[in-house]
Amino acid sequence: MASATGYDMVAAAAALRPQIVAARDEMDQQGRLPPSLVEAMDDAGLFRTYMPSSLGGHELDPITAFQVIEEVARADGSAGWCCFIAGSIGMYAGWLDTSVAREMFGTPANLRGAGSFRPLGTARVADGGYIATGQWDFASGCLHANWLFLNCMVTDENGPRYNVGGPLDGLPQLKMISVPITDAQIIPNWSVIGLRGTGSNDVSVSDLFVPGKHTFALTDHPMDSAPLLTFRTAMATTFTPLAGHTLGMARGAMDAFLELAGAKGTTMNMALLRDRASVQEVVGRAEAIISGARAYTLDAAGRMWKGMQSGKPDLGNEVLQTRLAVTHAVHESARAIDMLYHASGTNAVRSSNLLERYFRDVHASMMHAGGLLANFEQGGRVAMGLPPGAPGW
How many CA atoms lie within 13 A of 327 on its CB side? Predict the structure, then answer.
């Protein structure tokens, strides 16, 4: 559980639980994490889980990163989501030259990252860099971030540039730009059903010059040589804490349901929920679903991490299993929460019942790219020896 700095990150996350719980209503009302909670999370290193140790980050392995986010999300989905996003983005600081990254973020790095990997902007080639313009949605944590990582299509005076040769032949050239939050505009349009406290507003830049040394392509090999920063496993590593996020919420929902079951009946039946055979069956099945999905994810990610550490030349099967395990965990978490929600009867619809929050948040979380049903199709193609049709496999 120790990070590259020897710091127990899971214990640090657990210690913040009372503060996170106390901030739940404020997060929903304000649409962001309270500044005091942001500072506490930052002090605990929860926004630097995957950041390379060469920059002062904790460089967690995927298993520990999973456990950290699981612990935070068990307390609250929005808090867990912000840690997941910032922690994953921090890993990509390792795609920049180390000396440049230190100039940008300081030593040790002061990076609270937000942004978007979808190429919703353009980066026009200019002398020494690029001129960036665009608007990106779902920039989770942008209200407390200090740097944005934004993916762009590369253009020149002739229009879009395309790759020539290699596996990306004919596809548009992309560049991830790294820009200070002060160079961007935040568009306050985060009005949603779930994960309300993440502040996932749109962000935009217009005709902004970005030095070339502050950019990279996600398809580049990392500049940092740490085992965690492996090009082949980057997407699977990034997505592993997503499973921790949804499974953490599922465990939080189970906690809430067990408390409710010992104290409440329902509108049409005053018998305690825990004394009903039908409810007992739901709890047993939901427990098996949560624990089973968790075991699969930890096994798959653990095998991948072992291969990364040993320098195994072909990690294709490990990546396949980890990607499938993550998507499976996301959907199984939602299934377990749905079962508990419906078993609660009319109790579940009240905002005073935490099941209502977990229900909303898990259904928002599963819209992440790592939770899309298309991942099962891509994984099936790979398992049958066919090209996946999507990157990261």
Answer: 19
> Are the C-beta atoms of residues 77 and 358 closer than 8 Å to each other?
yes
62-89 core/surface letters (b: 16 or more CB in 10 A; e: else): bbbbbbbbbbbbbbbbbbbbbbbbbbbb
Query: What pLDDT does 247 receive?
Result: 98
User: Which H or E run contains 284?
Assistant: helix 277-310
Residue from 364, 387, 382 nearest 323 by CA: 382
Task: List, for residues 233-267, the tens digit of each pLDDT value.
Answer: 999 999 999 999 999 999 999 999 999 998 877 76
Residue 8 CB neighbour total at 10 angstroms: 14
The CA distance from 88 to 64, in Å, is 13
Q: Is the dihedral of CA 42, 46, 50, 55 positive or negative?
A: positive
Kindly give the interhelix angle for 316-343 and 234-261, rounded to the nearest 10 degrees: 20
| Residue pair 104/48 in contact by the 8 Å Cβ criterion | no
Nearest to 256 by CA among 330, 344, 186: 344
Exposed/middle/buried for 370, CB within 10 Å: 0-12, 13-18, 19+? buried
Q: How confident is the model over 9-33, as pLDDT tens digits?
A: 999 999 999 999 999 999 999 999 9
Other CB atoms within 10 Å distance of the CB of residue 98 = 15
Instruction: Check residue 249 and give its pLDDT.
Output: 98
What's the half-sphere exposure (Cβ side, CA atoms, 13 Å) at 20? 24
- DSSP, residue by residue, 350-373: STTSHHHHHHHHHHHHTTSGGG-T
Residue with tokens 């496999």: 393
CB neighbour list of residue 35: distance below 8 Å, 6 or more residues apart: 144
SS3 content of the chain, % helix, strand, coil (to 5): 55, 15, 30
What pTM, to 2 d.p., does this model score?
0.96
Q: Report the DSSP pairing between strands 147-156 and 113-126.
A: parallel
Residue 262 confidence (pLDDT)? 86
Element (H, E) at 209: strand 202-211
